[in-house]
Design goal:
With about 290 residues, the protein is an alpha+beta fold. The protein is built from six helices and 17 strands. The longest helix is centred in the last third of the chain and has 17 residues. The protein is globular and about 55 Å long.
Length: about 290
């Protein structure tokens, strides 16, 4: 599929090629250098439309994108918000540098379980960017679309999950299932990594901060396992083998992701992995039913 966008004032065309990654979500994009499109509002508009349509965009052959270019693209979507440790090798305070070598970046990131980012915040991050300065042989990332997972639930499961609320390790509480603030599609808010989970809550009332029940840790673990099983078994699950220069734009509220164990294989065995990540603050209010 080749997408054209017409600049009505200058009659010039901006063009990039978009190829689906799966039948359900995600697209690979080539034919554009983002560093050359930072001030092109027409291209920005098209990319935003495509992101909310496909939920994951992977731009190929971006080279070693500078911190300022990555941050500029991130700011198309709002305010960059950094809540993570800054590694000494990070090129900017708002760039989270991740690696399989502790001398090069933070290690074991994204490994604790399927998740969206920022569940510990009142408004989870809405957009995430990922850019690879160096890739390792087994450093893949798994992605799964959340609308399809919700729609695949059996009636009894759906009824239960609609009543559940996720409580983060910071005691922030979000509905497990809610409507995406931009697309209005069904989506989910959760983190399956145990360090990031306090409990699940049944029939939470945000008005008076009351609930029918706080699930025990055993019950909570059962829900986490159910979510993990659904994501792992999803026919829409996509595993991406990163290539040098890949730059990903991700609708953080619409897809879950998980870093494969192979991302932490030693540099001496698998090559050096360097990921630069940014996150964009949510600005639509807390997730609501």
């Amino acid at each position: 599929t080749v997408l054209f966008h017409q600049d009505m004032m200058s009659c010039k065309r901006s063009v990039y090629q978009l190829n689906p990654l799966t039948t359900g979500f995600g697209a690979s994009i080539c034919g554009i250098k983002l560093c050359e499109a930072l001030d092109n509002e027409e291209v920005q508009t098209q990319i935003k439309e495509d992101l909310y349509k496909h939920r994951l965009l992977i731009f190929k052959d971006q080279g070693k994108m500078s911190a300022e270019t990555q941050l500029s693209v991130s700011r198309w979507f709002g305010t960059v918000e950094s809540t993570f440790h800054r590694h000494p090798r990070s090129p900017h305070k708002d760039i989270f540098r991740v690696s399989n070598d502790p001398e090069e970046g933070c290690t074991n990131v994204g490994r604790s379980g399927w998740h969206i980012d920022g569940t510990f915040m009142t408004e989870p991050f809405k957009i995430q960017t990922m850019h690879f300065w160096s890739v390792s042989g087994h450093g893949v990332t798994h992605f799964a679309p959340l609308r399809e997972v919700v729609e695949s639930l059996k009636m009894e499961e759906r009824e239960l999950w609609e009543k559940l609320w996720f409580m983060s390790n910071h005691s922030v509480i979000h509905p497990l299932i809610y409507r995406h603030p931009v697309t209005a599609e069904q989506t989910m808010c959760f983190h399956c990594g145990e360090p990031f989970v306090e409990a699940f809550v049944l029939n939470f009332n945000r008005q008076n901060s009351s609930a029918e029940k706080i699930l025990s840790w055993t019950e909570t673990k059962n829900v986490l396992n159910d979510i993990t099983s659904k994501l792992e078994a999803s026919e829409y699950k996509y595993t991406h083998q990163w290539e040098l220069g890949d730059f990903a734009l991700m609708d953080n509220l619409a897809i879950a992701h998980y870093a494969d164990p192979g991302t932490q294989k030693p540099r001496s065995e698998d090559g050096l992995r360097i990921l630069h990540r940014t996150t964009v603050a949510g600005d639509h209010g807390p997730p609501t039913k």
